[in-house]
Amino acid sequence: MSVVTNTTTIGAIEAPSRRNTELMMLAFAVAVPVFAYINVGLAIDGKLPTGVLGYALGLGLLAAVAHLVVRKFAKYADPLLLPLAVLLNGLGLVMIWRLDQSPRLIQRAEAQWGAFTPDAPKQMLYSAIGIALFVGVLLLLKDHRILQRYTYISMVTALVLLILPMFFPARNGAKIWINLGPINIQPGEFAKIIIAIFFSGYLMVKRDALALASRRVMGLYLPRGRDLGPILVVWAMSILILVFETDLGTSLLFFGLFVIMLYVATERTSWIVFGLLMSAVGAVGVATFEPHVQQRVEFWLNPFAEETWAQSEQIGQALMSFGAGGTLGTGLGQGNSDLIMFAANSDFILSSFGEELGLAGMMAFLMIYGLIVERGVRTALAARDPFGKLLAVGLSGAFAIQVFVVSGGVMGLIPLTGMTMPFVAAGGSSVIANWALIAILIRISDTARRPAPAPAPSPDAEMTQVVRP
């Protein structure tokens, strides 16, 4: 008996978009900061804060706009990146508002500058601008591989951004700002994204030469001289940034990002060892003749010395605030970390979280950062093109390095670097640049998770005879 059937093409199975999961997580990410806001108000004066409704509507609206754009233009993106960023941004707004309510900070600011300007309204504005940039990136960047065309343009742009602060006055001993009238820009925050784009494009082309064409010396595979040139240039640039701008944080971020991406591109452990040796040599060399770096190291080694306390009391105060928090913390709005000057608009805002949330809350807080890095690395593993893999790793690595150097400096693990805690510390450059970073990661994850289109059915499909006995 014979049966004649038509062959048909079975399309690719539609992958779940996970947008509803993202929406539920966003609702949670908005609810937690709103409850924290209410908690702070009750702790300060025993009643609901008058601005809680405006804060809830503002944060919820920003999250809803971002979600709708992702749902429409990045349907298959990672469902956790956006809620995690919204949660951090919301908690940062709450802590900045909490510090704005401190009578001690208000009196200190009025005595020193003659007036006190709250940071929370400005931070909400910066967050809105960051979400607008997030939306713009997703709308304009249809495919992340387009960025590969601008490899060397991005290198020039990054160099300009890193060099410009040298021509402006130093703030707190470091030249990391561009002052344009009332507008202050920290170009290093944007440069980390542009540098990651350059490194991704460059290493995608040169990775075979860096991985295979090398010589073995004392168990390490060292590159040829022609391939070592760009690495030495990057090393020299990081040293020059440290010397002329006395910016330890950007220097560490710049060189650490390159070493991470080199290791991922070549899979050579020798690059990690080689990078650590070069960074150690550079740091020791600069510290021998640069007074500002020497001072940072001295303050780190002796945070409670009389000379340190007279010039930089914030280091010792931050350590005491962590100790005062204990395991469970003093409670939101009930700590004394507002005694730290510039607590809201610097890396020291982390000590406010440490005191009022305690060790348990601090571990959860850092875990949120860790989850963003993990989702970025997961996106890199899922990416189908080498440029996307390197770019996702680079952006995740830059984010991780910044969190490490900031938290490590505030907790006394390493010298202070002067960088800001992503999404949390007050400042427009940081929150805007990090929203752009999240947008690029979402675009890469959308491309990586998007199912391949089903092949079109052939018009010449033939009848197939299936013979059954």
TrEMBL record:
<dbReference type="InterPro" id="IPR001182">
    <property type="entry name" value="FtsW/RodA"/>
</dbReference>
<feature type="transmembrane region" description="Helical">
    <location>
        <begin position="81"/>
        <end position="99"/>
    </location>
</feature>
<protein>
    <submittedName>
        <fullName>FtsW/RodA/SpoVE family cell cycle protein</fullName>
    </submittedName>
</protein>
<feature type="transmembrane region" description="Helical">
    <location>
        <begin position="124"/>
        <end position="141"/>
    </location>
</feature>
<feature type="transmembrane region" description="Helical">
    <location>
        <begin position="226"/>
        <end position="244"/>
    </location>
</feature>
<dbReference type="Pfam" id="PF01098">
    <property type="entry name" value="FTSW_RODA_SPOVE"/>
</dbReference>
<dbReference type="GO" id="GO:0008360">
    <property type="term" value="P:regulation of cell shape"/>
</dbReference>
<dbReference type="GO" id="GO:0051301">
    <property type="term" value="P:cell division"/>
</dbReference>
<feature type="transmembrane region" description="Helical">
    <location>
        <begin position="420"/>
        <end position="442"/>
    </location>
</feature>
<keyword id="KW-0472">Membrane</keyword>
<keyword id="KW-0133">Cell shape</keyword>
<feature type="transmembrane region" description="Helical">
    <location>
        <begin position="271"/>
        <end position="289"/>
    </location>
</feature>
<dbReference type="GO" id="GO:0015648">
    <property type="term" value="F:lipid-linked peptidoglycan transporter activity"/>
</dbReference>
<feature type="transmembrane region" description="Helical">
    <location>
        <begin position="389"/>
        <end position="414"/>
    </location>
</feature>
<feature type="transmembrane region" description="Helical">
    <location>
        <begin position="150"/>
        <end position="168"/>
    </location>
</feature>
<dbReference type="GO" id="GO:0005886">
    <property type="term" value="C:plasma membrane"/>
</dbReference>
<feature type="transmembrane region" description="Helical">
    <location>
        <begin position="357"/>
        <end position="377"/>
    </location>
</feature>
<feature type="transmembrane region" description="Helical">
    <location>
        <begin position="250"/>
        <end position="266"/>
    </location>
</feature>
<keyword id="KW-1133">Transmembrane helix</keyword>
<feature type="transmembrane region" description="Helical">
    <location>
        <begin position="23"/>
        <end position="44"/>
    </location>
</feature>
<dbReference type="GO" id="GO:0032153">
    <property type="term" value="C:cell division site"/>
</dbReference>
<keyword id="KW-0812">Transmembrane</keyword>
<feature type="transmembrane region" description="Helical">
    <location>
        <begin position="50"/>
        <end position="69"/>
    </location>
</feature>
<feature type="transmembrane region" description="Helical">
    <location>
        <begin position="188"/>
        <end position="205"/>
    </location>
</feature>
<feature type="region of interest" description="Disordered">
    <location>
        <begin position="449"/>
        <end position="469"/>
    </location>
</feature>
